[in-house]
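Worked example 2:
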Amino acid sequence: MAFQRSAAVAATCGLFFMFGCEASVVQGRVDGVIAHPDNGLSWVTGAVSRGTLTLTGTAPTDEARAEAASLLSQIPGVETVVDQTVLDTVFVRRKNQREACEAKISETLAGGQVEFFGTTLRSRSRTLLDRIGVVLEGCPDATVEVAGHTDSSGPEAANQRVSEQRANVAVDYLVGKGLDRNRFTVGGHGESRPIADNGTAVGRAANRRVEFRVSL
């Protein structure tokens, strides 16, 4: 089998330059796998020498490092993988902060939705937004996408406008409490993203909501 493999390489490259050409072929395979967009390996670089593949780069997570080494080790011609990649600790820290902020907001909203009378904020929802404001003050680097939603009652175009207006009302309230407006992006999805059955009163109430998504 070793002879057949060498013969195939020699036929392509010429016997005299066989070993250098073989390394080039393996390097090409590695580069192709790294470059493929479905593999998510844009952060890593691989260099092949005498069957040893050395990986360098800054990985977003430990899982990504392990997956890259596992995938690239399966390439024909790669005998050993030396992983010299490092973990992006800033990315991990920001990811953990984002998840913590989102968890606190979800915990706050578990007690009830931000409710409106038309596009006017109900008084009992002010307390809920006050609590969300406290969470966001504790996440000073976070930006927040605020999205309004409606049930399916009424015309679709009107529901779209109402969802946007409700999101803006929520942001206006938070800004009025001292948060920077530049931290917010506002949008509305109308009735297009229900989370419950619009055929029941309970379901419609659940669908009339404002969602908060944190980014860092």
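The beta strands are 44-49, 52-59, 80-83, 86-87, 116-117, 120-121, 143-148, 184-188, 210-215. The domain at 91-215 is CATH 3.30.1330.60 (60s Ribosomal Protein L30; Chain: A;).
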